[in-house]
């Protein structure tokens, strides 16, 4: 591995430069045309065949031996509608858009991995399929790639995905079972009847009914009995047109997140039941709906062991096998329903600058993680 470490060290400036170029030029979901062009240019330089799937997804195959199994590696490529507030030379040049979730780093590291694997393909016992996924942030990318045949001809035998977090110093973590939650958008629309507040008995406030229902639903966070942790939260509420007019409409949008399908269904049933009770009590009409439901990412036991073995060889005791999953969502759950997979989290807290969480306008991570992460992924792929 001494020679590989030397090669990885030599690759790091290229990976960091690419990451910063992507960071400066973020593109929103399904608008990642320049990003996809950049990815394809790097693949062309490595003579790795590729094709577009959907408008901005890229699927590439590094074929070692047609008789070998295939391992898929997913990299998200989209950015978020969040202004970049970091005072760094590589800050976003696109107003109101930034890579606040680390997808720039994931894409850059995956292309660095492609270069390393291409140079050492004779050491592999697996073919590699790279899935450069658009629109992960909107929950659509995985289905777009699947519908475009990304898991066909041949169907991958296994999948690896990874992410960066800055909540801990250098290290990595793998969850024993569920790594992410089953997640869906939750929308509640309340319809009442309008009127003047001076004659309140003649109207029916949709805002009052919505407020009552919101408090009841969020109370489930403390009272519901489930197999594993969950969260229900609302991010927006909007209703009414004027302070002295009884509001006849109100809409609330939020999220429902649970680690098991049974817990998710139980909680949604409770929400619907609460909505029905509120309808009867207030005389309003209430519509409850879900959107963009994605399955949980459940790690495969064999790949957990392979990942931990490779991780401990690189990170030592900083490679953690955890029983505490994240209540984040990832549409990669759709891949995991079809093929066994593994989700890895690489920790990369910055040494001096404050560490802001993902989706924060000042989110960033320590680029020093690229070397250890690249070595870990390379070691794991050699073992497959």
From TrEMBL:
Would you indicate the residue range of the signal peptide?
none
Q: Which cofactor does it need?
A: Mn(2+)
Q: What GO annotations for molecular function exist for this entry?
A: hydrolase activity; metal ion binding
| Annotated binding of Mn(2+), by residue | 101, 103, 137, 163, 359
Matching Gene3D superfamilies: 3.30.70.360, Zn peptidases
What does the record say about how the cofactor binds?
The Mn(2+) ion enhances activity.
Q: Which UniProt keywords apply?
A: Manganese, Metal-binding
* InterPro entries xref list: Amidohydrolase, Bact_exopeptidase_dim_dom, Peptidase_M20, Peptidase_M20_dimer
- Specify one Pfam family: Peptidase_M20
- Using the record's annotation, list all stretches that form the Peptidase M20 dimerisation domain: 183-280
NCBIfam families in the cross-refs: amidohydrolases
What this protein is called in its record is Peptidase M20 dimerisation domain-containing protein
């Amino acid at each position: 591995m001494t020679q590989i470490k030397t090669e990885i060290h030599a690759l790091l400036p290229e990976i960091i430069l690419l990451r910063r170029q992507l960071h400066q030029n973020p593109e929103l979901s399904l608008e990642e045309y320049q990003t996809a062009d950049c990815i394809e240019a790097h693949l062309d330089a490595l003579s790795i065949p590729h094709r577009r799937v959907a408008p901005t997804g890229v699927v590439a195959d590094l074929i070692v031996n047609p008789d070998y199994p295939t391992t898929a590696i997913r990299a998200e490529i989209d950015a978020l509608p969040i202004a970049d507030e970091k005072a760094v030379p590589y800050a976003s040049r696109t107003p109101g858009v930034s890579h606040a979730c680390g997808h720039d780093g994931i894409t850059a590291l995956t292309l660095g991995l492609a270069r390393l694997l291409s140079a050492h393909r004779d050491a592999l016992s697996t073919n590699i399929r790279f899935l450069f996924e658009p629109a992960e942030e909107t929950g659509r990318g995985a289905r777009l790639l699947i519908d475009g045949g990304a898991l066909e001809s041949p169907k991958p035998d296994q999948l690896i995905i990874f992410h960066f977090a800055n909540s801990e110093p250098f290290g990595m973590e793998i969850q024993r079972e569920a790594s992410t939650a089953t997640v869906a958008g939750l929308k509640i629309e309340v319809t009442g009847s309008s009127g003047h507040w001076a004659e309140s008995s003649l109207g029916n406030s949709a805002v009052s009914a919505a407020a009552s229902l919101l408090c009841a639903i969020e109370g489930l966070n403390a009272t519901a009995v489930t197999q594993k942790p969950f969260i229900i939260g609302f991010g927006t509420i909007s209703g009414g047109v004027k302070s002295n007019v009884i509001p006849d409409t109100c809409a609330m949008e939020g999220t429902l997140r649970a680690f098991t399908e049974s817990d998710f269904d139980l909680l949604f049933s409770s929400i619907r039941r609460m909505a029905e009770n509120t309808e009867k009590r207030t005389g309003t009409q209430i519509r409850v709906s879900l959107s963009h439901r994605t399955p949980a990412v459940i790690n495969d036991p064999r790949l957990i062991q392979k990942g931990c073995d490779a991780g401990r060889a690189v990170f030592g005791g900083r490679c953690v096998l955890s029983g505490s999953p994240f209540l984040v969502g990832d549409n990669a759950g759709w891949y995991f329903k079809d093929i066994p997979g593994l989700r890895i989290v690489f920790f990369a807290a910055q040494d001096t600058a404050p560490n802001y969480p993902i989706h924060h306008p000042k989110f960033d991570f320590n680029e020093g993680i690229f070397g250890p992460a690249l070595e870990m992924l390379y070691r794991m792929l050699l073992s497959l």
